[in-house]
Design goal:
single chain, alpha+beta, Immunoglobulin-like
Length: 241
């Protein structure tokens, strides 16, 4: 074939060499070349088959230690409860359309036993009476909760909250008059906390006996506080803050 190509190229008709070149390019590779290609393909397939389980094993080895605590050992978010509370004053001044308030509470976050440390951040709490927020929400310190641990967060609110005149002021005055007559005053405390970055809202209802002066007179700043013995909070819709 090569000799024929040489004589053709030496001839006066170079175009006659084209069929010969095409025939050379279409020749079947030699058996040795085919074996080399087959060996290379087999080696590549074997390497891929060996590396795939190794890659999967390494991925599992890296991910499992972090996924097991989060997916299997991590309980649902912890719902706080109020360990105790005191109401020292809650009065409505119709002339000023304002509520005077003074109360405190101890919030607790008690986590169940687990192997996962939980981080609480962005904790805030605000009291509400008859739908009226009493002052701004108080920011509480964050903390890390270890296995089965509990954390107590004392919080207090005191001040004078102006109430918009009209329907809102009438609702607050009517609710306070009714509850004083019944002997119990209910204050809702809204709590927001981020547990491992996921925010949740909670509502805690504190029912206090009406504070009375120590000599049995009317309620006032010098009255013995009404004491709340504690109770659970519930999940709430994020609408309060």
């Amino acid at each position: 074939m090569i000799g024929a190509l040489y004589h053709t190229l030496r001839s006066d008709d170079p175009a006659a060499a084209v069929p010969i070149l095409r025939a050379m390019s279409a020749e079947t590779p030699s058996p040795a070349s085919q074996r080399r290609r087959q060996c290379a393909a087999a080696v590549a397939a074997a390497a891929a088959a060996c590396l795939a389980p190794l890659v999967v094993f390494l991925a599992v080895l890296v991910l499992v230690p972090s996924l097991i605590p989060r997916l299997l050992l991590r309980p649902h978010h912890v719902v706080p409860y109020v360990a105790s509370g005191e109401l020292r004053a809650l009065a409505f001044d119709a002339a000023a359309s304002a509520v005077t308030y003074n109360l405190s509470a101890v919030l607790r976050f008690d986590g169940p036993p687990n192997l996962y440390a939980r981080r609480y951040t962005g904790i805030r709490a605000a009291p509400f009476y008859a739908g009226q927020e009493l002052g701004a929400a108080v920011a509480l310190p964050g903390f890390t909760q270890r296995s089965g641990g509990g954390n107590a967060l004392p919080v207090a609110w005191a001040g004078v909250q102006r109430v918009p005149p009209g329907r809102r002021a009438r609702a607050v005055a009517a609710a306070l008059a009714r509850e004083r007559a019944e002997g119990w005053i209910s204050v809702k405390v809204a709590v927001r906390a981020a547990q491992d970055g996921a925010e949740s809202d909670f509502a805690c209802v504190l029912s206090f006996p009406v504070p009375h002066k120590r000599d049995g007179g009317g309620a006032g700043n010098g009255a013995a506080p009404g004491v709340f013995d504690g109770g659970s909070c519930i999940d709430a819709v994020r609408t309060e803050f």
